[in-house]
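Box S2. Input/output pair 1.
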Amino acid sequence: EESERRAPQRSPLPRRRQRRGPGSGGPGNRQQGDSSPARWEARPPRHMSPDRRSSSSSSSSPMGSGASKTDARQRRTANSRSASASSSASEPGNFRDFVLSRLPEGCSPEEAMEKYQEHERRAKQRRDARAARAAERARVAAEQKAEEWRRKAEQAVGKVQGLSVFFDMYHPLSHLRTYDLRLRAAHHQAEAFVQDMAKGCFQGLAFYAQDANGERVVLSPASGLGEKPHFVLDPDVNTVLLRGVRPTVSVWDIYDAAAECPGFLTLSWTDPTGCDFLRDVRLRFASAEAAGQALQQIAGEAVLSAGAALAQPASNHAGLMLPPEMSHPDRVRKDEELAATILRQLDAVTGVPPETTRAVLDAEGTTVQKLDLSILYLRRVHHFCFYGAAWCRDAWELRQRCGPLLVRDPVAEPPVEGEWAEKHDWRLRKFASTITLERPRVLGCDDEPVATKCEELVGTLTLRIAEGRFKCGECQKLFKGPEYVRKHVRKAHAHLLEKLRQEAHADAARAAFVEESSSIGGMKLEIEVA
């Protein structure tokens, strides 16, 4: 009993193994032949703060105080972040939790409400500050990513600016020709539509489902003007397809060659695909004979380097059937008014003569017949899908985005308007309020920045050789005053001013490419840039 009472009491705390050096003494040093276990150093209690625990462990670390302090600082930072996150997560979510966890006993209701409101105000400030920091980090990251893409676009523009595909997509003169082509096509289609109306070609028009199979509607094959009741016009009818047009060939070179063929109507082209920037070009003609003659003529053009063939129209067309609510008489009446409004606006922005617009809208018939005639006019003339509220560039894009057409459900008792009809009405009214088709801006010698460069060039070419005697620096012709030299340069050396205008257009094309390609995924001409 006496020996047990004198024996040292072992600490209840866990001990850490501390290996001592070979020259250190003490009971913790294991000597040769000593089978006693090594001593365990007491660990700091678990309830100690992270700072004290780190300082305790760093004092006995064999790595020295510098590394231990660095590790301790990193642990304190991580612990503080986790503590702040846990504190924000453990904040009381309502007044009851706040009173039970934050207020002492005996607190009056007025004081409790005042403190809770102050707590809510500070919590909101903390949430707003965290949201602002997150938004700032996202903004900085987005700016860095945009700058990276802008750098890639600026490097890529030097590799593609000499290609014809670059001119077709970004040059202001190409945009102007595209605008003029769209207007000419609308005028021609509107005139042809009115002529077909006068001939009675659209008798039996009705956009109702005939052969329904679930939500798919099987339509009749398209030939010529299409067949009733839907008069679906396939854009591939009487069309020459050029596959794999090289990027060194401009679509306007193809247009100029096709314009010499009889019966040519319009053309369309796809965006470049792959690293070779190949495109497909479609040329549409008034008849099958005209398309065949054009195929023989265009196929002999070696510069195209494309596979030319007649496009194959689809054997049948499948559209979609609208919800039954779109067949309600009240909905049909509203759609007839909306279709007439959009038809007037599109005719106005494309320059269709007003008498053509009145001929379509003043046609005799029921409300359903007037609506269907307006829908057909919008599709054929303006490539506009009424029920999809989509205004497309050409008939091929309309078919790709919206299909051949959408038809109504011939239900006997259609339901009243629902969610689909409300969204349809909102889409059309929004489109009607934003219809615009502006003519692309082409720079002239009097427009900036061309005007300033022209004045600088004229000033450089105006040389004063004596009092009241000036000469042109380009052709050495003499004049009495500088104003005569200015007129002479603008008239006799207009090619020098035209060169400045072309350089300004090239700068605008490069800027458009960089602006479009600066967004993630916005580069249509895929260029490998380191």
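Box S3. Input/output pair 2.
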Amino acid sequence: LMFLVECASIVSLSCTVTANLMSCMLAAVCLFSASLCALDAATSVEPPALIGTDKAYTSCPCIDHVGNPHWASMLANGGHRRVANNGTTFLMGIPGETFPNNYGSGACRSWDLKHGIRDCQKTEAVDWCQWSWCYVNGSSCGRPSKPSSVFDGFSYSYATCGYLDSYTLQKIVLPNNMQKRQYYAEILEGVGVSKDPYKDIWLNYGISRQFAYHALRRMGIEPESLLYRDISNASKTRYPESSYSACVHDVAIGNLDFCLGDWWQTDERMTMGVAFTPVYIENLVMVVPIADHQETFDIMKELEKPFAPFSWELWGLIIGVLLFSACGIAFFEHGREGGDFADSGHCSTGALSIYVSFLGFFNGGKSFAPVTSGGRVFGLGVAFFIMITLAAFTANTAAFLTYQARPPPSINSMSDALIKEKRICMYEPALNTLVAKYPELRRLGVVSKDSVLDDLEKKGVCDAGLDAEPLIWDAWGKGEKCNFETAGQPLMSYLTGFFMNDDVRGAGSFAVAEKRMDGTWSKLESGMRPINTCKRPEEEEESGVPDQLHAGHLLGNCIILLGSFVLACVISHVHKRAPSGHEVRASVTSSMSAISDVIRGENEELEDGADNKPASMDGADKEQRQVV
């Protein structure tokens, strides 16, 4: 670089002070060469390694307290390095534990797991046992480090070895002086509200309260020691419609330390500057009264029920197969002596074969006696088809005969409710959030102070509601509010958890996260949705007893049977009024015989009288005979 600067000055001097063209050109070549040299030097320099030979980041190397005199003397002067009777050197920690002589020295290793230190001797060791760490110079380490609680003047670091310090994190609790401090709390929870501070009440009222009990103990606070303080008048005046928001306001002004229960993280509450720790997500759904279902008689629906187990496409296939079977029957059996079609004509055979094919289907088997080998084999195929088809039909018939479609909800969405000018009950935070998307809620929205479901039951208050799913599940689990149902998908969701002051927010957030990870919340959450004890057609459990059919279930079949009877009577009546084929043939034969007798008598009379007539009458007689 120095050569480049010097060469640049030469160029400047040669090209400005002198007019020697050759000197200027040589100076330019010098500058170009120097530039290439400097560029090559810059690209050939490798960046410093991030990881050293000790497997630690170079910004915070591991110290060697065995070979380095400075660190070795610190251990010796502190009385930590000792020699056993057998001559083995070991380290003595402050708690009185003994450690190997090279414990945590010179490199990143899983020192605790390797030497079986404390909790790492267990079969199921905690996670920090397997992480690598080493002792470092805490004053110059460029990575997170913590003072050692074992050796005075030493610091350790998991971060320089690329691991999280979960050893320290597991010990995150409130300091002793803060654990002994008096805390004030307000517990509001939609499920099982109670202010009794005793343990059995904590663990028997509300999922969120039970989880708060475990989280407080993890923080180092005994839940039984909390004092319950009512919300201040200042906060009630500021938030008259929501005691939840008023509680958060009390934490903000220092009247309370905790708001424990199922608090929503709303924008309004977050602007108060109070720390929030989320626990779970709570959905808000539309709740509407179940529409009254009064089924009216519809003859077309009743007629469709007997055919409902099969689709019309399948019925078309079955009819086609039966017509094909009729053709096969006629092909094999027509004109065969001793068969059902021995004396039938072609048209009669076709009609009769169609009849026996459909009759066999409705009877559950073939209804003709084949006399040919081909007819017998084909009859077996027809019988098998009928058996399988009727078995499938029978298996599905009862369900369709007893099925009653549940009417759709009277209101299926927020937009539908607003179009129908329906009043909607909801809590104030939800109304404040949704009014920007649905401006009509300024006019149709109704704020519920206590319970949306209770307001829905009151006549004239609102027509629909927006409530949290856990509250609805809890009511249905108790067999209450069974006259309501949910409509559509959740309209919105809230992070739900606890609000707490800044002094405990760190320990509180860690305690909640740890209790979620160790399965405490999962066990409690499973009870958030109890078994629905409200009897609903779509949610009733199978009792093991099949549904019993009633007379009304077979009304369609009876109508079809009655129709066929009426049709049969009409056809029978027509046949009785009309002469049969034999009668028609006898009548025609008798008429023809009478006509022949008349013609024969006339011919004889004409022959007898021919001799007595004059010759002039011959032409007239011939003409008369032709007419006769």
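Caption for Box S3: The radius of gyration is 51 Å. Residues 1-47, 190-201, 538-549 have pLDDT under 50 and may be disordered.
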